[in-house]
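Lab manual, section 2.4: Encoding a predicted structure.

Procedure: take the sequence of the chain (132 residues), apply the prediction step described in section 2.3, and record the output as structure tokens. A sample record is shown.
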Amino acid sequence: MDQSKTPVPDAPAAHHESGQTPPPPRATSTRDELGRTVEALAAKADIKAQDKEKTAAVKDQTAEKAALVSSQIREKAGQAARTVEDKTPDPLLERAGQGAAAARANRTPLLLVAATALTVLLLVRRNRGRRR
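Recorded output:
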């Protein structure tokens, strides 16, 4: 008998439905493990997805920090306003309040005066520019 040929078992239990013998259990587990490894490597190589995740994380952190800083600024501004109010003499506060009320009551005349002053200033600058 030729030794280069391996004998094929004749037992019907050794054949699979497709006519091939089923892989041994160790080969199946190795194939599954290899599949999981390939999936893990593919996930690591997906740079676009990683960049999107990092961008979202940085965006969230930035929004949180901005909210924190904003609230701190509001708090400090309130403290500064209270300090200025506490240290400013009462007569000065009353005068400032009266001036603000008068300005609110007479907006139209104040705007006309400001517009006139601006026009005169621009005309004077224009005339000086032509003389040079």
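Check your result against the sample. The CA atoms of residues 4 and 10 lie 19 Å apart.
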